[in-house]
Each structure stands twice: as structure tokens, then as C-alpha cells.
Amino acid sequence: MIDEIMKVAPSILSADFCKMAEAIENLSLWNADLVHCDVMDGVYVPNITFGMPMVKALKGYSKLPLDVHLMITRPERYVGKFCESGADFVTFHPEASEDVEGALATIKSYGKKCGLAVNADVDLEVAIPYLSQLDLLVIMTVQAGFGGQSFKPECLKKAERARELRSELNLNFQIEIDGGVCPQNAALCKSAGADVLWPGMRCLRRKIRLKLSKP
Length: 215
Ligand code: ZN
What we know:
The structure is a single chain. Helices cover about 30% and strands about 15% of the residues. By secondary structure, the chain is α/β, with parallel strands linked by helices. The chain has a single domain (about 1-215), classed as Alpha-Beta Barrel (TIM Barrel), CATH 3.20.20.70. The protein is globular and about 45 Å long. Zinc ion (ZN) binds near residues 38 and 178.
């Protein structure tokens, strides 16, 4: 079943890396539903963030599920390790993988939720063959790998199409919007079919409520 209340999964990318424990505790206080961990490898995307040891450390402090978004090349090599490190959700980019089916199966074999992410410059078509296997479909509204970009509303067409396909094919995956989400565009995301929003922590720090009740 698709949850009827929109969830928020703030990214820890904008947190102070020296105060991660405090940041994680604050996310619980601020009513986040998930903690979004952006993993970048410097190959699939031009930036590098953190890897399994950080996820393992966060798991020790977080009461919330960890939502790990892998922006890495050949994610099939690492999805199992992230599951072992405490990820509850593992999402990767299909065009970066040489074995999408294998990577999805590995995540499921650990009893974790699996997802595919569609980058801002990538067509939804890359994910369509796998929709029946997914728990999550992430539609990116910025180009993966950089912080502080402005939201690209044209990417929401992919969320609308995914919602149609979900209904036509009678599937259950959640649709998540990742990148540049803020209170000004949250309603737009929801009307395009989003079930989960991934804002940066700064949005929550300003005590802006992004949760939207079902109309
Ligand atoms: Zn992300």
C-alpha cells in the first residue's frame, strides 16, 4: 500500500560532518521519517562524500531508517556492503550499473528495500524494465553530485509518468523526489505523484514544515 501521508527524508549532506550524531538526533526531533544519505564516489558524479563506515556510524545513532542513495559507478559491487552497514533502503542509478537485476536481488536478499534513481538528465525509460521489482523510484530534480542547485520542475513529468505506470501495471513502489525540494515546490511535487520528499537539512532547520496531509 502507498502511504497516504507524504514523508520527508532529509539529506545529511548539508549537516556539519563533525556533529553527525547531533544532526541525526535533531532529525528525529524535527519529525523526519527517514535519514537520506547521499553517497558519491567521484566517478559517477564529480564529488566524493562518504561510504560504508559513515552509514555504519549513523546507524548507531539513528532511530530513523537510513535511506542510502548511491551515486556510484557499478553499484552492484557495494550494495551488499551498504546493507551490512545498516542501510534500510538502498537506491542506485541503473545506467551506472552493469547488473541492475543482480544489484536489486542482492538488496532484497538482505531483507532491505531497493530503489532506482533517475538522474535529471536521464530518461525514465532506464528504470521502466525494473519497475515491478522496486520499492522506491527516485526522480531527481537536480543533477546528481552537486549541492545548492535550483529545482528543475520539468523533471516532475517523469514522476507523473511513473505514477501512471504504477497504476496501469498495478505496482506498489513509492515515488520520491530528490533535489532542490523546499516548501515553495513541495505541493507541486505532491501533485506530480510524490510520496516522499528529500529536502536538505537546512529546510528543516528553519523549522519549515514540509509534511503535507492528504487533501
Ligand atoms: Zn539523494
